[in-house]
C-alpha cells in the first residue's frame, strides 16, 4: 500500500479533509479530485486525494475560486510530470557522457571559447584552464591549469 491506494469511502475522506461529503461529490464532478471507483461505482479516496482536498480547502479559504484552484492543480501536475521527465533526461545524459569518456574534457581558451579535448590531450596555448567533471559517485570536479 502507498499514498495512492484507494482506501476511504466518501464519508471517511470527507471527515479526514474536514468537508461535507456533498462537497467531495462536487469536486469530483468538477475534476478537482478524481477518486477511484469500485465495481459498484462507489468512490474510494486515497491519502493523496485527502491531501489534495485539504489543499483545495486551504486555497478556498484564501479566497480563490474553484476554476482558479482547478488551474493551479493542473499546473502543479504538469510541473510534476515535467520534473520527472527532466530527471529521466538528466540520467540518460549522464549515462551517455559516461559511455563516451573522451568527450568529458573541455578547455576554456583565452577568448572564452570552449574546446573539446580527447582524454589525455594537453592544451597547446598557455593560460588555458582544463575542467574535468566525472559524473561518477560524488560528482567530483577537478580544476587545474595546463602548460
From TrEMBL:
Residue ranges occupied by any HTH merR-type domain in the UniProt entry: 7-75
Pfam family, one: MerR_1
SMART domains on file: HTH_MERR (SM00422)
Keyword list, A-Z: DNA-binding
Keyword Transmembrane helix set for record: no
Protein name: Transcriptional regulator
Organism: Homoserinibacter gongjuensis
Amino acid at each position: 500500500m502507498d499514498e495512492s491506494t484507494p482506501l476511504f469511502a466518501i464519508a471517511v475522506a470527507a471527515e479526514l479533509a474536514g468537508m461535507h461529503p456533498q462537497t467531495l461529490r462536487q469536486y469530483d464532478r468538477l475534476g478537482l479530485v478524481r477518486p477511484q471507483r469500485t465495481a459498484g461505482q462507489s468512490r474510494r479516496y486515497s491519502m493523496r486525494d485527502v491531501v489534495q482536498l485539504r489543499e483545495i480547502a486551504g486555497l478556498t479559504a484564501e479566497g480563490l475560486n474553484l476554476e482558479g484552484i482547478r488551474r493551479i492543480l493542473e499546473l502543479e501536475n504538469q510541473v510534476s510530470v515535467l520534473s520527472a521527465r527532466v530527471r529521466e533526461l538528466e540520467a540518460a545524459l549522464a549515462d551517455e557522457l559516461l559511455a563516451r569518456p573522451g568527450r568529458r574534457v573541455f578547455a576554456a581558451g583565452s577568448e572564452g571559447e570552449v574546446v573539446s579535448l580527447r582524454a589525455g590531450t594537453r592544451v597547446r596555448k598557455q593560460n588555458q584552464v582544463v575542467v574535468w567533471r566525472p559524473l561518477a559517485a560524488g560528482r567530483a570536479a577537478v580544476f587545474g591549469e595546463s602548460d
